[in-house]
Amino acid sequence: MRVLITSLLLLIALNLQAQNFKFGKVSKAELAEKEHPKDPTANAAVLFKRESIRFDYRKGDKLYFSPLLFLATQENPFKQDERMLPIDLIYPMSDKYMVNIMLPEGYDVESLPENVALDFADHTGEFKYLINQNGRFLQINVELNINSSFILAENYTFFKQFFVQAIEKESEKIVLKPI
Q: Is residue 126 within 8 Å of 119, Cβ to Cβ?
């Protein structure tokens, strides 16, 4: 996740031209002046617009796709069955994503992943997955917070399971059916 965010920030830093967005041009100076509405201390905001979604597969006339697109965690970084030493993450971490999707013409939602909130060790780790539909629009909010940089070895199995559950939730599909 951090590599992706770092790469995107590097690409933004290297881009000296104003970028065309649907609602107008935004220069680097204008973007630097903006504050995140909910967290004015946020280091950066990355705006990304994708014109189309690649559907994972079709079954009959139904479409299946992952709503987090390329943002979903692909594999659990914690692979060991057990651990003798604590995990030192160096610093707490927070990843937040908001994805807005407009449903394609002629389709409606058949099923959405359920909203979920996971907690590890009394708020040491938190994962929230919220999805809302408003007409033809879907909004997905995902938040992963690790509030401690140090995870004890005796908590490793639970911490690993916390990540397994979060990754499974991120990989769930939305199913669309024709109207």
A: yes
% of the chain at pLDDT higher than 90: 44
Whether 41 shows a pLDDT value over 80: the answer reads: no
Helix (H, G, I), strand (E, B) or coil at 3: helix
Q: How far apart are CA 66 and CA 131, in angstroms?
A: 12
Domain boundaries along the sequence of the chain? 1-49, 53-178
Q: Which residues of 15-36 are buried (b: 16+ CB within 10 A; e: fewer)?
A: eeeeeeeeeeeeeeeeeeeeee
User: Taking the domain 53-178, which CATH number applies?
Assistant: 2.60.120.1130
| CA atoms within 13 A of residue 28's CA, in its CB half-sphere | 9
CA distance 102 to 125: 31
Which pair of tokens denotes residue 39? 């967290």
Query: To which residue do tokens 């707490």 refer?
Result: 92
C-alpha 130/C-alpha 113 separation (Å) is: 9
